[in-house]
Amino acid sequence: MAKWVEIETSGDGQRHGERAAADLATLVAESLPEAGRAVLAVSGGLDSMSLLDLAAGVRQQRGCLVTVATFDHASGEHTARATALVAHVALEYGLQVVVGRADAEARPGEAAWRAARWRFLRSVAREISGPVITAHTRDDQVETVLMRAMRGAGARGLAGLRAPSAVRRPLLDVCRADLQAYADARALRWIEDPTNLSRRFLRNRVRQDLLLALTRVQPRIADELIAVGDRAARWREQLAQLVDTTIRFTLQPDDGNRPALDIAYEDVANLTDRELGIVWPELASRAGVTLDRRGTSRAMEFTRNCQAGGRIQLSGGWELIRARESLELRGRENGPVEGEKGVRLEGAVRWGRWRFSTIEEPAGADPWRAELAGNDLGIRAWRPGDRMTVRHADQLVGRKVKYFLSDAKISGHIRPRWPVVLAGDEIVWIPGVRRSDAATARSGRPVVTYVCDYLDRRP
Length: 459
What we know:
Blueprint: E1 5-8, H1 14-31, E2 37-41, H2 46-62, E3 65-72, H3 77-92, E4 96-101, H4 110-128, E5 132-133, H5 138-150, H6 155-158, H7 176-186, E6 189-192, H8 202-217, H9 221-246, E7 249-252, E8 260-264, H10 265-268, H11 273-285, H12 293-305, E9 311-314, E10 318-322, E11 326-331, E12 343-344, E13 349-351, E14 354-359, E15 369-373, E16 377-381, E17 387-392, E18 395-400, H13 401-407, E19 419-423, E20 426-430, E21 434-435, E22 447-454
Parallel strand pairs: 2-3, 2-5, 3-4
Antiparallel strand pairs: 1-6, 7-8, 8-11, 9-10, 10-11, 12-16, 13-14, 14-22, 15-22, 16-19, 17-18, 19-20, 20-21
């Protein structure tokens, strides 16, 4: 079993630490929302325990309520001890603590641990409605930029930790050695993660071997990597501004708190391949999707050759769909599908991404409302061949539901999940689209006004 080391020091670095403490405190104070709430991501290591100590000292002057979030990766004895230390120290400071733990059956490894940790941190941030604040340092940025360069990353990747983000990193211009001095001067406690010494992990090999070798050849390599990251971050900011001003897109809520992105097709249809290769990763990032080179290439090709109703699968459970006037980036299969068993409509009912309820007002001309008679009402997904009765030339005729959906510009990907409301075996309402002219013609039955709220509906 891996050993853990708890360190409690003071002395040698005290003078340097005291001199830097005021500057460090200012950096952290400026990252805290004034009269707001914030989540401190604290692992129990040197950097994050220094952040915790600094934030505890300045939170009151900012009027900020700080929640400490710590995550046990369940990767060894040291992670449980680190979590316990964070909780103990945070409570000593009078701060709220939230502890997350990895699933015992979760796949081990750097990428899996990082993904699980960030899922936890973001969930805490959503709950308290505040930003996540981390203890990433200048050293972390140097290592990140170098690793991205080794992978042949473009400007998006080379921005590293400087990339535009909701995450706040107040110590990103601070060297790890300065935090070591601060921690020594404050006699802070922390726990060294033994995996930080293991050369099984790329970052450790970069930190312990490659960077040292490069520094011997080029003493200013760290400064140069920082400059590369800064230039790439500025480029990303300029690209984001360009996309915001030249391409129309909207974000809509989707199942599982994943947003869905709708992009005006005409705004990207005539871009060159080079422009699409730059724009697509930026657009996808608005929905929290990271496109690698293969995904970007697929999105470019689809933009060039897609037909209305076409779709392609992307990694991570996402798909790109061509609607009549837009390109839609959405999570796959979010809601009821064709053939799913229907439900009874009586009072308030939730069906997939649709919510039905009753109101006192008349329906009027709003297609999202219908005055329905009878107690045998039901909801199901529409099926090929479904027809609804409408009035045409003073006669009641049946017309296929798919034509109503097409007329309403309901895109092909969502049609299989669009509901129809039936009275017995007769379709009387396509919510948001059309009501049957025979909807209330059921003599002797009480009439109730129903309203449908489509949770993905645009304002």
